[in-house]
Structures are given as C-alpha cells and as structure tokens.
Specification:
- α1 runs parallel beside α3 (about 40-55), α3 packs across α4 (about 60-90) and α5 (about 100-110) crosses α7.
- The protein is mostly helical and about 160 residues long.
- Helix content is about 70%, strand content about 0%.
- The protein has two domains: about 5-70 and about 145-159, no CATH class; about 75-140, no CATH class.
Length: about 160
C-alpha cells in the first residue's frame, strides 16, 4: 500500500517535471492516488517515477504510468534470467567477470549460483527461475534517492 504523504510529495514533483501543477487539483490527486495506492508500494514509487521520466515525453495517465513500470520490471528480470541460462549452459560458474546488472549478480548468488542453475533439471530450473525473478525485482525496486530533488527542481524553474 502506498502511503499518502510519500505519494503527494513525489507525484507533485513528478507532475511539475511535465509542467503540470496538480497540488491545487484534489480530484486529480485523488484519481492518481486511488489508482496507484493498491498497485504500488512505497518502495516501488520512486523507481516507477524514474522509469516514467525516462519513458514518456508527456505526462502519462496513471494507467500508462503503472503499465510502463510493470512491463519494464518484468522485462528486465526475464532478460537477466535468460542471460543466466546462457552463461550456465556455457559452463560458467562465476558472475564476477560477466556484464550482468548488479541485481542479477545478487539474485544469482541468493538462489545458489550459476552452477546450481546449470545442474538443475527442468522442474528445479522452474523453481530457480521463480526465485530469481522475485529476488531481481525486489532488488531493482529497492528504495533510493528521491526522484526529483527539490533543489534540482528549483534550479530548473529559475533558469
């Protein structure tokens, strides 16, 4: 569940990025909150905002915002899993020298490593995949810095 305080602060800054001011529009704020509150957690909000800023030229609707984020998170996790399968099939046992995202390297170690993936039968590999995808998504949604620092926003307005 998305907390109202974090939502209001971040979504207003997000809207300002697109030259929209929704702070004085309680209907718009309520619509955004009602749509996102049951679909995003506090930890997911900032990565979702960062993804939307990188994806959309114009401010998206709440549904477009959520669909773009969910699709990106799932796609990245699946791409990383497929890379793991390829490397395990090649007989690799260490991820240190591989060009994997940090989330993939950590998720691989949490599920037992490339050797574990390579030695798994079909049923075991399915279980490992589910665990990997879950770990990868959790790591990629970890809280980070605010998406739009207030000082940056004010600097942009002054110019």
């Amino acid at each position: 569940m998305l907390s109202i305080d974090l939502f209001q602060q971040q979504i207003c800054d997000f809207a300002r990025y697109y030259n929209r001011d929704i702070t004085d529009n309680p209907i718009a704020l309520q619509a955004w909150y009602e749509f996102l509150a049951d679909n995003l957690s506090d930890e997911e909000l900032i990565p979702a905002i960062k993804h939307a800023i990188a994806t959309f030229h114009f401010m998206p609707s709440p549904q477009e915002f959520l669909e773009a984020f969910r699709g990106a998170s799932d796609t990245n996790a699946l791409e990383a899993w497929n890379q793991c399968l390829e490397e395990a099939a090649r007989g690799r046992t260490s991820v240190r020298e591989l060009d994997f995202p940090p989330e993939a390297k950590i998720a691989i170690s949490k599920i037992g490593g490339l050797l574990q993936i390579g030695n798994a039968d079909e049923w075991q590999r399915k279980e490992l995949k589910e665990r990997f995808l879950s770990e990868f998504k959790e790591l990629s949604l970890a809280p980070s810095q605010p998406a739009l620092p207030i000082t940056l926003h004010r600097t942009l307005q002054v110019q």
